[in-house]
Amino acid sequence: YKASRFSPLMSVVRHTVITLPTPVNISTWWNFGSLLGVCLAIQIFSGLVLSLHFTAHTDLSFYVVIQSFGDVYYNWWFRALHANGASFFFIGLYLHVARGMYYGSYVFKEVWSVGVVILLLVMASAFLGYVLPWGQMSFWGATVITSLFSALPIIGGDVVIWLWGGFSVDNATLTRFFGLHFLLPFTVAGLAGLHLFFLHDQGSSNPLGVSSDYNKVVFHHYYVLKDLVGVCFFVGPLLGLVYFNPWLLGDPENFIEGNPLVTPHHIQPEWYFLFAYAILRAVPNKLGGVVALAVAVLILLYMPFSPQTAIKGLSFYPWGKALFFSLVGVFILLTWAGAKPVEEPYVVVSQVLSFLYFSYFLLIGPLTRIQDKLL
Amino acid sequence: MAGWTVGKKVLATALGMGATGGAGLYVALDESVKADLTLHPPKLPWSHKGPIDSFDHASIRRGYQVYKQVCAACHSLKYIPYRHFVDVFMTEDEAKEEAAEIIVRDGPNDIGEMFDRPGKLTDYLPMPFPNSAAAAYANNGAVPPDLSLMVLARHGGEDYLYHLLNGYCDPPEGVELGEGQHFNPYFPGGAIGMAPPLYTDIIEYEDGTPATQSQLAKDVITFLSWTAMPEHDERKKFGMKAMLVLIPFTALCYYKKRQYWSLLKSGKYVYNPKKY
After folding, report:
1. Which of A1, A329, B90, B235 is the least buried, fewest Cβ under 10 Å from its Cβ?
2. Which site among A22, A255, A266, A268 would you substitute to test the B interface, given the most B Cβ atoms closer than 10 Å to its Cβ?
3. How far apart are CA A87 and CA A108, in angstroms?
4. Pairing of β A21-23 and β B191-192
């Protein structure tokens, strides 16, 4: 406390993580904010170390990444941590967003909007990073996703060539993807600071949906310890994967060097993008699919403007709860469908699930308002 | 439905379950017809698969012998240098001797000429063909893939490779193979350009192990697992140490958290209405 009297920086630290008034009843679902901060730190740290031994060139990238396993001390650890850290980052992100949707955290408009931007930037960063090892899935994933921009009317073709830096995904694409992948996480870190700034302006909400002002405690030691326990339970499985099964969540195709002349049987992204991939492929029109893909994430920006309920969150709305958990099931099934080939019955299944996914956002407002009127 | 008798409810439940089961059976039967014609490899009890199991280094050594005498004729291991053998399945002298058996093009020398020299520890295992065009020409148009990462580059890993090597059989009725192709039910599409590479006693092991077909396959795949995951043993050892620290630390954190929170958790709010 003495230091903060003299140092503005220590004063910020004190008000953010020591004396911050925090609701006494926030549950484990509120741990994911700090967990995501830990994930970001892990990714930046491991990524920095990996970048010391990485060369972004189509002739060298694959070779350099593989060679580093045998030749650079513990580089296998940093690569496994970075690859699996990305998966855990998305686990944390989706659970954090789900918490926000269930408990009505989106009423904090600024916090929510910055959060959606962070989600988009992390998705972009993950996509860019996956291209860097230059395996088959890296190359073809980059080709498929960048080609989507050709669906833009009039300027689409030129935009794609501009993105590629040439007439196909090649060395120019790889080098700029490396630069952007290095830059974006620092942008995310800055936005995370802004996210926290807006949050602390109003203070955290709580599971009951009522005002938190009636019962608050200081952040330290209560929530420092609670967050530390959360970190242990989160990092434990992450390290378990890193040490005992590092490639469980990966695709074997990415251990084959990228070859523009050989197309893999099933081009698919990592698991955290499969739900969006399923929605993209469900629409039989290219531009329609791209729009559906974008709206699948951007629709979150609509939530602060959806009709507000009498009680914040869905805790006291049984129909709303049922719809929310249906959305969770739909999300999981969309992830499953995204890994399937584009043939029947998976096409119809993806279309039905995509319809149900978007229906949640249209139905949740009216459903909860009906219950409000019945009360 | 609220006014239904118990019998009606039971009947409705049974009908519902029957309909769901019937639909599921229909879907399963329909799917089985649509299934791809590739046989999925059964899981095998590899000695290095467990969370605290290391590689069988004697098996890696035998597997290298199989690779060198059988597979190296067509398949490269371009990411593996001889120095990686040291203290894994060879001594330094053995690895140097092994490297010295190959001839490597090096140079330029002081007068600007390229020259041939015996291999050193720092050299990589030699490629059987100078380029992929030569490899395809020598193998009926199919390029034998590099094996360095093969265990990680195929769905099923070791199980797939083992069953591929041992699964050759006559093609079923109606299946036509191209010239030079062989039938293998584990290979996607069934028609593989590689002839069955392993037979019992195709080589003689240095350590006297009987060289049965399954032993040869097991050893070469253990070797290939090592080439794909050279950090395997160190990774699991590191993991055991990490868990030895992480688990007690987690328990300690959880205890301290509960201790600090016990004051709040055992608190009680009592409403004492005002007596007027």
Report:
1. A1
2. A255
3. 27
4. unpaired
Tokens of A122: 């992390």
- Other Cβ atoms within 10 Å of A90 Cβ, number: 20
Report which secondary-structure segment, H or E, holds A279: helix A274-282
Could you tell me how far CA B246 lies from the centroid of its own chain?
Answer: 28
Q: Is A227 a catalytic residue?
A: yes
Residue A204 designated active-site: yes
Cα–Cα distance for residue pair A303/A103, rounded to 1 Å: 12
Per-residue pLDDT of chain B (276 residues; tens, 9 = 90+): 667 788 888 877 877 787 777 777 766 665 655 556 688 899 999 999 999 999 999 999 999 999 999 999 999 999 999 999 999 999 999 999 999 999 999 989 999 999 999 999 999 999 999 999 999 999 989 999 999 999 999 999 999 999 999 999 999 898 888 889 999 999 998 999 999 999 999 999 999 999 999 999 999 999 999 999 999 999 999 999 999 999 999 999 999 999 999 999 999 888 899 988
- The residue range of the domain holding B133 is 57-80+124-232
Domain ranges across chain A = 17-264, 268-374
Q: Do B242 and A66 touch (CB under 8 A)?
A: no
Number of domains in chain B: 1
Catalytic (active site) residue A226: yes
Q: Which candidate in A125, A205, A226, A350 is catalytic?
A: A226
Nearest CA among A365, A340, A166 for reference residue A267: A340
CA distance A369 to B15: 36
The answer to the question of residue B241 being in a domain is no
Evaluate whether the domain defined by A268-374 bears CATH number 1.10.287: yes
Q: What is the pLDDT of residues A289-335, one digit of tens each?
A: 999 999 999 999 999 988 888 889 999 998 899 999 999 999 999 99
Considering only residues 211 to 250 of chain B, which have any Cβ-Cβ distance to chain A shorter than 8 Å?
228-231, 235-236, 238-239, 242-243, 246-247, 249-250
Say if the Cβ atoms of A66 and B250 lie within 8 Å: no
Q: Which residues neighbour B152 within 8 Å (Cβ) at sequence distance 6 or greater?
A: A247, A252, A255, B228, B229
CATH 1.10.20.10 fits A17-264, yes or no: no
In a domain? residue B192? yes
0.85 surpassed by complex ipTM = yes
Catalytic site residue A340? Answer: no
Alpha carbons A75 and A61: distance in angstroms, whole number: 15
Task: Please enumerate residues of A whose Cβ is less than 8 A from a Cβ of B.
Answer: 24, 63, 66-67, 69-70, 76-77, 80, 217, 221-222, 225-226, 228-229, 232-233, 235-236, 239-240, 242-244, 246-247, 252-253, 255-256, 265, 343, 345
Residues 6+ apart with CB under 8 A from A260: A139, A168, A169
B252 found inside a domain: no
pTM of the predicted model as reported, rounded to 2 decimal places: 0.91
Instruction: Pick out the residues of the known binding site of B for heme c.
Output: 71, 74-75, 194
Distance of CA B137 to the CA centre of its chain: 29
Mean pLDDT, residues A328-350:
93
